[in-house]
Amino acid sequence: MADKTSRSIRYADLNAGDNAETRRLIDAGNRLADEVARLFPSQPDIADRHYWLEAMINHVPDYIYAKDTEGRFLIANEVTVADNGLESLQDLVGKTDFDLHPHEFAQAVAGTERRVLETGEPIFGIEERAIVTKGRDRWLMTSKVPLRSKSGKIIGIVGISRDITDRKSAERLLEGQARLLEMIAKGKPLTEFFNELVLLIEALLPGIKGSILLLSEDGRHLLHGAAPSLDRAYSAAVHALEIGPNAGSCGTAAWRGEQVIVSDVYADPLWADYALLLKSSGLRSCWSTPILSRERKVLGTFALYAHEVATPCEQEQELIAMAAHLAGIAIERKRAEDRISFLAHHDALTGLPNRVLFEEQVDGMLEEIRERDQCAVLAFLDLDNFKLINDSLGHAAGDELLKAVAGRMRASVRKADFVVRVGGDEFIILLNGLPKERDIVLSRLEDIRSAIAMPLQLQGRSLQVSCSMGVACFPNQGRTAGELLANADMAMYRAKELGRDNIQVFTEEMAARAHERLQWQEELREALAGEEFLLHFQPQMNLGTGRIFAAEALLRWNHPVRGIISPSVFIPLAEETGLIVPIGDWALRAACRQLKAWQDAGLPPLIISVNVSARQFRERNWASRVAEILKETGLEARYLELELTESLIMQDVPGAIATMHALEAIGVHLAIDDFGTGYSSLSALKRFPVRRLKIDRSFVTDIPLDADDMAITSAIISLAQKLGLRVIAEGVESEAQVEFLQKAGCDEIQGYFFSRPLSAEAFESLLSSARP
């Protein structure tokens, strides 16, 4: 540092310069200093003050300078002089930015300064790119104020510029992080996200090049993710790189699950087989960091390459860690989204597309087929007796069966075809671009059906499962996915009606039948709302006394147009649609109410017998609903008998027994209807809390002509007596049948021999006439 004398001489020299404005500025400063010295004689002299002022501004790291109205430098601190490439202030004074820097940069600076000179208004805190870069992109925060003479005239500008490159880098990093997180939140494609991430790091670390590689599904290879600045040939060469203990920086980092820093790829044995790939690029060092999941599993690698032999500094390590962390978040988020999307569009059990994906894609597929003037076949299939397998072997076995069937269907179709699991044991197969010959189409479907029916091992046993398949052809039997599916569904139900294990192709007759079925269903709903149902009552007679002891309530539908409709016509439809539950409740309530009315009228006491459907019996808390109906109608429980079929009970024996005991606790009597046609075992029968067995009419009809029927009937009667149960035979129509049943020990009969079903009024008349 020069002494005070030399400093004064420099200012003296400056005073002697040719610039008049400069001389005036210095003179004004000297006069101010002399006045301060006169007023405060104890203060340092002007030379000291000049020295302190110069020392102070030279120790400030910011640029401090003054210029005249023509943009010529008047004074500047040492850092300003040095960064402009000059050795001393004398080299700078009198020069302009146009003398020192490229024209476009100098023009931008001059424009700002001109605004200050013309308006007299200072400019504070403007951010501008530094003209002097020092080998890297730099930013300055600049303030410029007008320099005024003692009279207030603007004679130049004073400027201060601070290097804010680090702050700008931090801001850029924060903005980049926010932008990247937004991309993750919006589900942007991974390639787009990776490129943005690498470019952000490269912008913060000039001269550095980045790369992202992803670990393959098999966990053995690294696949290209992003490398926007690396040589494409190099990126292509390392694509599908096999990871291992000596597989360069990235392959080794993925293998170890930890960072691998190679300062010189030409000297490190990890790069022995890969260094030549970098030769043309001029890159010398590679620092690779594994991208990890939350469970610390390797997802890929993030690598930085430098042209010099180097290792990462602290700032670079922080950026690497941040980039690898963000990349991990993006990969996991994308995988979670893919998983959610897959589950939304695929069946979780079989992995097949589900109906959602089918509906999204099928119309486009059909349009392509239409343009090629080809046909497609949609098959709707249902596994036969799947419920029996599921119930007998358990749900786990049922799931294994469904997966095996799904695999067989996939293996039986081409990649262009579509196999869909609709739900349960129902599937859709769409065969694309088929020839229009019917025989070829049916042959393909038969092959699929045969593949499904092949034996398979399930829980140590060999099983076979068949399917019922309905078929609709595009475009003749449906021009949209909805039409095809509806028509194939109709054909599938026709296949089931014909005994299952067959293929049915949709016909117009099926459509007409389905339309009629739909109309019946709607009319059935209207019948329930409009109270079109009524009950007929068929007497049940005690063979020993010849008296009526009970009546079976039989449901009828009094259609406003069709007249009285038999239950054999509408009950199956009611069962299928679930309407049997409210209809059955109505029948039970009406029967109890009618019997209570007869009792109140003083007619002989009797039992009312009401049939129970499987859907009713499986209803939750059904016994409680029966109790509510009895309470509502005022009928004592001992006068009500509920008839349950064998097949109904055997669907769920433990559940059935629990419900039966609940009904027994109320006081209701139970009977097994159609006995002998189901598959109940004697061990199950003895557990049922029932009072009567009802022999099915199919065994009575051919008596006394059929010796087998007579033998079966006699056996049922004998069995019931040994179990302490009463027996009633239905469908009795002749004297010979009555005589046989009496000899066999049957207790009661029901049938046309005694009486047809009667209206409530006719039955009441019959009861009145039968009074003793």
From TrEMBL:
It comes from the Bacteria. It catalyses: 3',3'-c-di-GMP + H2O = 5'-phosphoguanylyl(3'->5')guanosine + H(+). Residues 124-176 form the PAC domain. One of its GO terms (biological process) is cellular response to nitric oxide. Residues 517-771 form the EAL domain. InterPro entries: Biofilm_reg_signaling (IPR052155), Diguanyl_cyclase/Pdiesterase (IPR012226), EAL_dom (IPR001633), EAL_sf (IPR035919), GAF (IPR003018), GAF-like_dom_sf (IPR029016), GGDEF_dom (IPR000160), Nucleotide_cyclase (IPR029787). One of its GO terms (molecular function) is cyclic-guanylate-specific phosphodiesterase activity. Transmembrane segments: none annotated. Residues 374-508 form the GGDEF domain. This is Diguanylate cyclase/phosphodiesterase with PAS/PAC and GAF sensor(S).
